[in-house]
Amino acid sequence: xxxxxxxxxxxLPVVRENGVRLQFxxxxxxxxxxxxxxxxxxCPMCQDYLTSLMRDVDHVALLRSGxxxxxxxxxxxxxxxxxxxxxxxxYELFVDASPGQALYRTFGMxxxxxxxxxxxxxxxxHGTRSYVRHGAVSGLxxxxxxxxxxxxxxxxxxxxxxxxxxxxxxxxxxxxxYAHRMQTTTGHAPILDVLAAA
Length: 198
Description:
Blueprint: H1 3-11, E1 13-15, E2 21-23, E3 33-37, H2 44-56, H3 59-65, E4 68-73, H4 80-87, E5 92-96, H5 102-106, H6 136-150, E6 166-170, E7 176-181, H7 191-197
Parallel strand pairs: 3-4, 4-5
Antiparallel strand pairs: 1-2, 1-5, 3-6, 6-7
């Protein structure tokens, strides 16, 4: 990403769990920050990804490193509190409040190709473990079970089901030192690779 793209992204609005709007750049302007863009709040593959984040990351070591980690979604901020409870997520979560998901667009993230239910995941390099633990049916069952367990408000907008996400390392300043954009619905980068880049 160029500095002009980052400057544009920095001015776009995001919303905190409490409904407060702020400019996206306030989150990474003064600190190196890992930003994980999930697809939408009801995506079972993204829920598997956050499960892997909670399982595989040494959260104390990350805190000591001075690297911040945040998660951004594209649905309603009314889902943030219960979504964080599902994973006992110690990191802040925000939603893209820009018109037409301009924040996702600015970072070059695309949509699942038209006419496909699910983009196929490319084969993984030898020795690489996938974070995906659920198929279509078991994934739906997991999402419903999570929602019921934490009282997730199902009437809130979960986000764009065709949106793809990605992972970026930003800041301090208008600097991007790592960028990965999902090409498939199961295409998040391994979280330890993202943190190693940070």
